[in-house]
Amino acid sequence: MSYFLLDEFKNSTPYQPGEMPNDRDYLKLNANESSYPPSPKVLDAMTVAEVNSVTHYCDPHYVSLRKAIGSIYDLSYKNIFVGNGADEVLSFAMMSFFRRGMKVCFPDITYDFYRTYAVTYGLDYKQFPLKDDYSIDVNDYINTDRDVILANPNNPTGQALSVSDIEKIVSANPYRMVLIDEAYVDYGNESCVPLISRYSNLIIVQTFSKSRNMPGARIGFAIASSDIIKDMERVKFSFNPFNLSTLAIAGGTAAALDEEYMSLCVGKIKYTREWFEDELEKLGFNVYRTETNFVFFQPKGISAADLTAQLKANGILVRYYDEKRLDTFVRITIGTEAEMERVLVTIRKIIGVSNAA
Amino acid sequence: MSYFLLDEFKNSTPYQPGEMPNDRDYLKLNANESSYPPSPKVLDAMTVAEVNSVTHYCDPHYVSLRKAIGSIYDLSYKNIFVGNGADEVLSFAMMSFFRRGMKVCFPDITYDFYRTYAVTYGLDYKQFPLKDDYSIDVNDYINTDRDVILANPNNPTGQALSVSDIEKIVSANPYRMVLIDEAYVDYGNESCVPLISRYSNLIIVQTFSKSRNMPGARIGFAIASSDIIKDMERVKFSFNPFNLSTLAIAGGTAAALDEEYMSLCVGKIKYTREWFEDELEKLGFNVYRTETNFVFFQPKGISAADLTAQLKANGILVRYYDEKRLDTFVRITIGTEAEMERVLVTIRKIIGVSNAA
């Protein structure tokens, strides 16, 4: 640590991404990435002319990309803010609306980045425990005066609240900000986007990293009232005006407009997920059905830690959390059917169950 | 403005980028972009496989890109921090080391983003006036206990301080941070990078947006002691861990390694700049010789505002600053020789000087 680092950062606990070992080739199912390529239209967009256009700054208002995203929900681009992945969008939202010392809340088990941000930037945060069935207790968030951050569906549990439950939280107090992270929304549950026309204390964050198969492109977006979006733009223009590259904009715009391809990939993943969850249940595993591109379960006859380690020894990376309430679970990203067949065969081998049909 | 925007942001003045009108085709020489394409190796790097690899997150430590940048200066990647353009790198540096209320200083005439950041994030900033010849008075920065931010060469004046002058500032007080923005350094003056092995209160910021012709790719970097870099990484990992796209990394790595191409483009721009400055002097214009990819001058027989407006009417965008001490100047980016010939012919026509040889 240098002499100059501000005291408030000295005890921060930076976000820990899923491991990326490179001692051998792994089937990487630990970070909810995609086994399907991006839309072919993304490749079409990367023409020689487009690559060469990096010689100029792009429009820092990103109107073309914001219009393309708006068209998905029949919204004006004025309701859309774009950033370098959902994390940056979340950070700009929190930076704009949550001051050091302000009270926020989120579940004890959720996407760890919220806590990372809260600790680092000095928010007064409270974590409400998930219920025994690992679902969110809506009443916790209705009956608090704290600003709310919720992943819906939640991660790593994969469970979702209904739009009417979210509406209860949002409408309980219009002077309280509610941030809903819908990173996984396209895989099953209903989006809260229609609520933004009625509530000005709601920000919804989505991403191209999951259903659009493009985590490496770093494109996330927020949907909210035009006033909220204007505020976030104001903060962005004082931190990094030109936050997205011309290549991300070109690729992102092409991907946003190709809803057919997104639906196709999402359909395959949902089908594979349901089949894979069925197969895990046949092994006696305790499966928490998700509405995402991953499965979440407690294995039987082997600890979660052992199963994770043995899958890694077999060249398959999955996510294990060495922490209270989570250390009996494994989270596995849904890849292609062939990849998940390989995972199943390997799990059966590890736990000593015959792979014969 | 929404009910929720934090008070401290309500009076911020977001950075104003150069205008980007699209009512017609313009020769855009107002934002110090590049008329030369990026290295052909950048195009080579954008293979189908590379574009398709957006399906996965990149290594958020960006070791490959940092190593490539380090190799330019024979430094370890541990001395390199990468971000989404120099603005993000500057913001992460200021966020890591400058708290609300802390004292910083920079010139009255310089890259406006420093003031934007200082106002928005509540730094106690002081602007030392440039001398009458628009150069920086080194003593101002030696004799203050404030942290220092300097663009070297300065923008829009284009003048540079020597490494020994910068060393005087840095060495005057080791408990004071000095941030040197070397965005334009490759066009002439000597870099301060060698100083980082001796001073741990120095951060140098550079960019791929100027000499590497890639403003649209959004790649900037900081060079500093490994402790300073570790601190900045810590803050980045709590704000946006995966800040660069896989495409920017691939393109940036290819560009960093192609120093020959960079030298070729820089050589052409310096040659064209010197010739263009000579030609402006022949028109009686008062030229402040720069060490950058732009020229900075006071026209004669026409006001700077009028010249800017008439160039725009002729399809050429240049930069005019409607503010005290700057409103008699025009800044023009150096494009290709043919483009600058067109600018000269147009200027001669506007001021009524014959274009005959």
Automatic annotation (TrEMBL), chains A, B:
Its cofactor is pyridoxal 5'-phosphate. The modification N6-(pyridoxal phosphate)lysine is found at residue 210. Transmembrane segments: none annotated. Pathway: Amino-acid biosynthesis; L-histidine biosynthesis; L-histidine from 5-phospho-alpha-D-ribose 1-diphosphate: step 7/9. It catalyses: L-histidinol phosphate + 2-oxoglutarate = 3-(imidazol-4-yl)-2-oxopropyl phosphate + L-glutamate. Keywords: Amino-acid biosynthesis, Aminotransferase, Histidine biosynthesis, Pyridoxal phosphate, Transferase. It is an enzyme of class 2 (transferase). GO terms for molecular function: histidinol-phosphate transaminase activity; pyridoxal phosphate binding. HAMAP family: HisC_aminotrans_2. Belongs to the class-II pyridoxal-phosphate-dependent aminotransferase family. Histidinol-phosphate aminotransferase subfamily. This is Histidinol-phosphate aminotransferase.
